[in-house]
Design a protein that fits this description.
InterPro entries: DUF938 (IPR010342), SAM-dependent_MTases_sf (IPR029063). Pfam families: DUF938 (PF06080). By secondary structure, the protein is an alpha/beta fold. The protein has a single domain, classed as Vaccinia Virus protein VP39 (Rossmann fold), CATH 3.40.50.150. The protein has helices at residues 9-25, 41-49, 62-75, 111-124, 146-158, 167-175, and strands at residues 30-35, 53-59, 84-85, 97-103, 125-135, 137-138, 165-166, 179-187, 191-198. The chain has a seven-stranded mixed sheet with strand order 3-2-1-4-5-9-8, with helices on both faces. A hairpin with a 3-residue loop joins strand 8 (179-187) and strand 9. Helix 1 packs parallel to helix 2 (41-49) and helix 2 (41-49) runs parallel beside helix 3 (62-75). The protein starts with 8 loop residues before the first helix and ends in a 10-residue tail after the last strand.
Length: 208
């Protein structure tokens, strides 16, 4: 019988550093929506480490949803909910959340997906809630490492709509949806963790 559980080697490298950041910025009890949960390994690890978090995984891919469901069944965690199908450019859950988490999403999706993620998080988060983004970013238009420049070129060759995003551009776009950059944390493998807070205000500036 085939095992539907997918595995990503990167998860083992970054899951503990991500957990440590989330534990610093989230309350002990929080409703968390993870978008683009992928294999589901992050969901199992992060929910398992903090029982007070009610973790809602999601993904638009049927294969990913099957993997998440299988990991969830194997883990047997009461606070890890059944995965839901969610494309960030579509309809979001109506439930309010203390946190929205997106790990390694922005660089492997079109810029429109980033705009949709920020808009959706702005609406879904309670005042003071956290949008947590993890992945590679450029700073002031420059890559933070030669390996990131190589990775960026490979991404754009695979799909010209993809690519490592500018931290400043993401921050400006977030501000249009009431999200203020609170922390930037350097992470392993030349990645960053970005922590945004829902200010409860939106400037309503049209997207470019």
């Amino acid at each position: 019988m085939n095992d539907p559980r997918l595995q990503s080697p990167a998860v083992a490298r970054n899951r503990q550093p991500i957990l440590e950041i989330l534990q610093r910025v989230l309350p002990e009890r929080a409703r968390v929506l993870e978008v683009a949960s992928g294999s589901g390994e992050h969901a199992v690890y992060l929910a398992g480490a903090t029982p007070g978090w009610r973790w809602q995984p999601s993904d638009p891919s049927p294969r990913a949803l099957a993997s998440i469901a299988a990991w969830r069944e194997a883990a047997g965690l009461a606070n890890l909910l059944e995965p839901v199908e969610l494309d960030v450019t579509g309809d979001w859950p109506s439930t309010p959340f203390e946190a929205v988490v997106a790990i390694n999403l922005l660089h492997i999706s079109p810029w429109a997906a980033t705009e949709a993620l920020l808009a959706g998080a702005g609406d879904a988060l309670v005042p003071g809630g956290v949008l947590f983004l993890y992945g590679p970013f450029r700073r002031e238009g420059r890559h933070t490492a030669p390996s990131n420049a190589t990775f960026d070129a490979d991404l754009r060759a695979r799909d010209p709509r993809w690519g490592i995003r500018d931290l400043e551009e993401v921050t400006a776009a977030a501000g249009r949806h009431g999200l203020k950059l609170d922390k930037v944390v350097t992470m392993p493998s030349n990645n960053l963790s970005l922590v945004f807070r829902q200010s409860g205000q939106s400037t309503l500036i049209p997207a470019r």
